[in-house]
From TrEMBL:
Presence of keyword Ribosomal protein: no
Family to which the UniProt record says this protein belongs: Belongs to the TRAFAC class myosin-kinesin ATPase superfamily. Myosin family.
Protein name: Unconventional myosin-XV
GO terms, molecular function: actin binding
FERM domain: residues covered: 218-519
Organism: Podiceps cristatus
GO CC terms: cytoplasm; cytoskeleton
Localization, UniProt: Cytoplasm
């Protein structure tokens, strides 16, 4: 079995909303609240008991003296009552302590949930209680804001889940209420949390501040290949899958299989420029750091679905990625006479792809720009200029969009097109000459000789059993990857050292998850 699990399927019946009058919070309180249990021993009339239980799930101005749920552990009981006071302070039902502001209150509550899973239900019940029949609208909105965060970060237990789901459904089905939209958001958060496991990192203060000011979404620019910028807004619990779908629909790529061939990359723009593909079930805000050092870009990772060029953005994005990969050595090219001919044709097409260049010949500087960096030293600039000049005299110029399409059709015929390529400096297998290249596509990992550009080894992805990243052996050394592959009868291990070890590891993880999804 591969060590990468596929995405969870649609949520099971655990998240479906029970029909009828069952599973209200009053039912839950009657069965599980500490005070309801003691009430059931008293000889009061049915209606009085009902009224008393209803009050247990309604807003109170007085702090609770014991946890709502029964805990045999006195520490949990104490933490629960302390949390209720923090909740009241945040909602404005109690005055704050010195040096306790709203953001601190939220942090204390979320941190407690993170540390004590057994208190999830208690905290859910406390917030639901304080937003029910609360006469103060400002206080209610604060409570819902907290519920919005709770549902995205922490799941209630399987016991509370149907009651919490029913509560949110009832709250979202009343369009006249001020909180019906946020209740819908909470429902969506809970569903995503169930499917994808919730956000990993607690929100930054600036994110909470924005939520308190009513800004539920953050502006984000996605850098697309070819210099296209896509402006969007991401909410607190937007997952990569949703954003990919939105971008792909703008590009005219709406089919699920094609959408799954794209990936969003988080690029940390510090000294070592960390690049990490974001899995489709991961939350974008877990990557968007406070320091604005993270850029999110789009890239096509898998090339299974045939390309179609009826959409301008689609054409520009794919052309942009292929040109960049071709010029920056991401598509392996072999040296030789035939390659020089190809470089000439591709230089001419790049020139025509620019607007209003159909009737001019490229300068020597432009020709150098149009030549892959890895081939610049081995191709004579004069010979290239002569070749391109001859091509221009014998061919009808193309419009930019047609030149881009022809360029792509040309590049897609290269033997190493479609592989994500990495420069590797050391390999444990002594039969492989180094430095060399490793290429990864949807089917396999290939090892390519750095000089001859011939394939020296192939590892089918289905044979990959396990892999892990390795720390550098020495100071200033390179990180690495260990690959375990082959069959149980004949297991094999290979380790390699390369500067992009983490990027290559995460790329393989994402490809495995995406291809598994469509098998």
């Amino acid at each position: 079995q591969n060590s990468v699990t596929s995405l969870a399927s649609e949520p099971s019946s655990i998240l479906s909303v029970p029909a009828g009058d069952q599973y209200t919070m009053m039912d839950f309180a009657a069965a599980y609240f500490r005070d309801a249990r003691s009430m059931q021993g008293l000889k009061t009339g049915k209606s009085a008991e009902k009224k008393s239980i209803a009050e247990l799930v309604q807003h109170t101005k007085v702090p609770i003296q014991e946890s709502l749920l029964c805990y045999s552990d006195s520490e949990l009981n104490e933490l629960a009552t302390k949390n209720f006071k923090t909740l009241m302070c945040f909602m404005g039902d109690q005055s704050k302590l010195r040096n306790q502001n709203e953001i601190k209150c939220i942090y204390e509550i979320l941190q407690l949930c993170k540390e004590k899973e057994s208190l999830h239900d208690e905290i859910y019940c406390q917030v639901i209680k304080q937003v029910t029949h609360n006469p103060n609208q400002e206080s209610v909105m604060r409570g819902w804001l907290l519920l919005n965060l709770l549902t995205g970060y922490f799941l209630p237990s399987n016991i509370l889940m149907p009651y919490a789901t029913k509560f949110l459904q009832l709250a979202s089905s009343d369009p006249s209420s001020t909180h019906h939209d946020i209740a819908k958001t909470c429902q969506s958060n809970l569903r995503k949390n169930f499917m994808y496991g919730g956000r990993r990192h607690l929100p930054f203060p600036v994110e909470i501040e924005a939520l308190l000011k009513g800004r539920a979404a953050r502006r984000l620019v996605i850098l697309m290949p070819g210099g296209v910028e896509y402006l969007t807004r991401v909410k607190t619990f937007t997952v990569a899958k949703e954003l990919l779908q939105e971008i792909c629909e703008q590009m005219g790529a709406g089919e699920q299989e094609e959408i799954s061939e794209f990936v969003l990359l988080a690029i940390r723009n510090n000294n070592n420029k960390m690049v990490k593909p974001i899995k489709s079930e991961e939350y974008l805000h877990d990557y968007l750091l406070e320091d604005k050092l993270v850029t999110v870009t789009l890239r096509r990772l898998i090339w299974k679905t045939p390309l179609h060029f009826e959409n301008k953005i689609f054409t520009d994005v794919h052309y942009g990625q292929m040109v960049w990969d071709y010029l920056n050595g991401k598509i392996l090219l072999s040296r030789g006479e035939e390659m020089e001919m190809q470089v000439g044709i591709l230089a001419m097409l790049q020139h025509w792809a620019k607007t209003e260049q159909q009737n001019s010949a490229p300068s020597r500087e432009e020709l150098e720009e149009y030549t892959p960096k890895t081939l610049r030293s081995s191709i004579s600039p004069q010979a290239l200029q002569n070749h391109v000049g001859m091509l221009l005299r014998t061919r009808q110029p193309l419009q930019p969009v047609d030149a881009k399409i022809q360029f792509m059709e040309h590049v897609m015929k290269f033997p190493f097109f479609g592989y994500n390529t990495y420069f590797v400096e050391k390999v444990s297998d002594k039969t492989i000459p180094v430095p060399c290249y490793f290429g990864v596509n949807k089917d396999e990992i290939i090892v390519v000789d750095g000089t001859t550009k011939t394939i020296s080894s192939v590892i089918p992805l289905k044979d990959l059993q396990k892999m892990r990243t390795l720390r550098p052996v020495s100071n200033g050394g390179l990180p690495g990857i260990e690959l375990n592959y082959g069959s149980a009868a004949s297991p094999k291990t290979m380790w390699l050292e390369l500067s992009q070890a983490k990027e290559m590891y995460h790329t393989i993880v994402v490809i495995l998850a995406k291809t598994e999804l469509h098998h």
